[in-house]
Each structure stands twice: as structure tokens, then as C-alpha cells.
Amino acid sequence: MSLNPRLVKESFSVIEPVADKAAAYFYGRLFAENPHLRGMFPPAMDLQRDRLFGALTRIVWSLDSPDGLASYLGQLGRDHRKYGVVAAHYTAVGNALLATARRFAAEVWTAEVEAAWVAAYTVAADLMSKAAEADSEFSPAWWLAEVVDHELRAEDIAVLTLRPNQHLPYTAGQHITVQTPRWPRVWRSYSVANAPREDGVIRLHVRALTGGWVSTSLVRHTRVGDTLMLGPAVGGMVPPGDNVRDVLCVAGGTGLAPLKAIVEDIITSGRRINVHLLYGARTSGELYDLSDLVRMEAAHPWLRVIPVVSDQPFFEGLRGMLPEVMSRFPSWADHEVYLCGPTDMVNETVRRLQEAGVPLSRIHRDTAAEL
Ligand SMILES: NC(=O)C1=CN([C@@H]2O[C@H](COP(=O)(O)OP(=O)(O)OC[C@H]3O[C@@H](n4cnc5c(N)ncnc54)[C@H](O)[C@@H]3O)[C@@H](O)[C@H]2O)C=CC1
């Protein structure tokens, strides 16, 4: 069975404009044919549908690059262990997916297209289930973690410190998923905000979002001593390693979390590259981690922290939206750049960096929330 990425991409592009309907149909069909699977999913399926399409889009567009595909599907397979996914579930999902694709790409569907989808799904399911199986030999499907500190740093932003009940491996820049006892089966992604430490403690920066079940629960209803469930670490944004270039980090709001972990990783690595951290928030009160960053800056002369405020006219420091403020500096063309924050901020920053001559290979951004 050989892969034919072109046929899958072409037929998938017919489905993309009706993604919402297709995702609703997919889950309707999956649960109608396999009612026992419904209990594995959260009561409200809206975010789940977006995630499905996010993941499918990424898989379809990675079909041409085997390494990227294997790495992403390996993470996806390991992460799905926490839902209780076993090999038999892949057949049920494959059937529902094929039925969905056949229906929503009917205008271009042929026996060849069907064969291409079957081949692609077989490869994907195989990569996921093999990675999950290998992982199960040495790693739990999920972790319990005790909340050992909870600081409300702004009206709706908290910094939580968690101690997992056993070692949870990760690298700086990765994210984990969190489930609270209040919302069973609802998992949300958060970047780990510290580099790995000897004591295994993990910090999260959380903003309570309107209508955000987990974020509101973490910020407003979680206390020291509570227990949370954590999924495995995933994500491809990794620290600069042996690279000797100077680093620029652009952090919007709680997007600071993974970038702070990366800066901490540079500190613990002992390397002395220059690091500029542009840290932006709407108001000075929302620069919730500034005092800690200023302490880090004082201890490490090669680190420069630059606070930026966008929505407070009389703020005495740098004012403006992050992408525009970043462009006021002479040049970042020789830097390795790390970005995290609101999607529009990240996209606009990437656009400006490319315009200024920074190649995409040197721009690192996280794509959380896809798993
Ligand atoms: N691993 C990841 O991918 C993570 C992503 N995030 C994301 O970061 C975001 C943080 O949100 P908030 O704290 O509410 O930030 P925010 O909305 O308060 O924005 C912070 C700053 O980003 C810039 N900005 C915001 N919108 C912009 C736009 N449309 N164009 C240009 N610049 C803009 C401004 O300088 C603003 O002061 C969330 O969307 C969250 O999902 C957060 C943590 C980790």
C-alpha cells in the first residue's frame, strides 16, 4: 500500500471549507456506530471538533515529510493514552473518518482517492499505536500532581506550582495537558513555564478565560493541596542547544510561559549568548511575572528584559503592540527567534521578521492546543 499525498491533499481541500459540518458528522457517526466510545469524550464537543481538524490538517500537510509526520504522530499516539485509547479504537475511528471523507469530498471521490485515504490512515494509525505501545513500557498514561503553590498575580492570572507524583519528562518549550477534578475528561494545554528541575516541580501560567472551564477552575477554584491530572509533555519548540546565535524572545501575555522556560534552560546550560526578551501585556498590571524576570536579569548580565505595554496610554516604558515595537529595534536578522502569545501577534511577528530577512528556520513558535 503506497502513500499518495497529492490525492489526499486535493480531496481534503474540498472538505476544509465545510470543516465544522464534517467534524460534527464524523463524531455523530463514530458514536452512532460505537456508543461505548462516547464516554471517553467530554460532554461538550466543540473544542474537540476544532482539535480534530487541527490534527487532521497537520497530518495531511505532513504526508510528504515522513520525519515530521512520524514525530507528530508519535506524540499524538503517546498523548492519546491518557484518554484510554487502545488499538481497537483506531479501526472505529478509521471507518468513521473514511465515511466522512467520502461524503464531504463526494465531488472528487474515486476508487483511487479512497485507496489513498486508506493508505494514509493505515500509516498514521500504525505510527500512533506503535508509539503508544512503546511508551506504555516505561511511562504512565497520565500523572497525578499536587498543587504546592498557587499565586494570583493579576485579576485573572495565576501562577501554579505542581509536584507530579512521579517523574514527568519534558524539555523547556514543551506543553502538557491538564484536567481538573471539576471537569472530568476535559483536557487543556498549558506550556510549562520552567526548565526541568531536579525536584521535578512544574510551573504553569494560567489566564482565566471567559467560558474557559479549566482555566477558570485553575485560577479561581484551585487551592494548595488539590490534585490535578497531567498528560505527557509534547511540542516541538526546543531550546537553542549548541547554537551560538543570540536569541530574541517575544512573549505576549501568558505566552511568556514557554519562553521563560527556554531562558531558564539557557541559564542552566551555562552558555552566555545574549538574550533579549520582549515581554508584552495590555496593561502594566498584567505584566504578572515582571518582578521575577527583573531578578533573573539582575543575576545574568547577558539577559535583557524589555517590558512593553499596549493598551495603557500613560505607561512610562515602551508602548505599542509587540510586533510593531519589535520592528523599532535596529535588526534581529542574526538572531534565533522564539515567539509565543496570541495567534495574531505571532503571525504578524513572523511576517515582520521574514520581511526583515530572518529565515523561517530560525523562527520558533509553539503550536499548542493541537493535540
Ligand atoms: N504554548 C502556546 O502556544 C501558548 C500560547 N499562549 C497563548 O498566548 C495568548 C496570551 O493571551 P493574553 O495573555 O490574553 O495576551 P493579550 O491578548 O493580553 O496580548 C498580549 C500582548 O500581545 C500583543 N498582541 C495581542 N493581540 C495582538 C494582535 N492582534 N496583533 C499584534 N499584537 C497583539 C500586544 O502587544 C499585547 O499587549 C493566548 O492566546 C494563549 O492561548 C499562551 C501560553 C502558551
From TrEMBL:
Pfam families: FAD_binding_6 (PF00970), Globin (PF00042), NAD_binding_1 (PF00175). The keyword Transmembrane helix does not apply. It is an enzyme of class 1 (oxidoreductase). GO terms for molecular function: 2 iron, 2 sulfur cluster binding; heme binding; nitric oxide dioxygenase NAD(P)H activity; oxygen binding; oxygen carrier activity. Keywords: 2Fe-2S, Heme, Iron, Iron-sulfur, Metal-binding, NAD, NADP, Oxygen transport, Transport. Signal peptide: none annotated. Its EC number is 1.14.12.17. Its cofactor is FAD; heme b. The keyword Nucleotide-binding does not apply. Residues 140-240 form the FAD-binding FR-type domain. This is nitric oxide dioxygenase. It comes from Sinosporangium siamense. The lineage of its organism: Bacteria, Bacillati, Actinomycetota, Actinomycetes, Streptosporangiales.
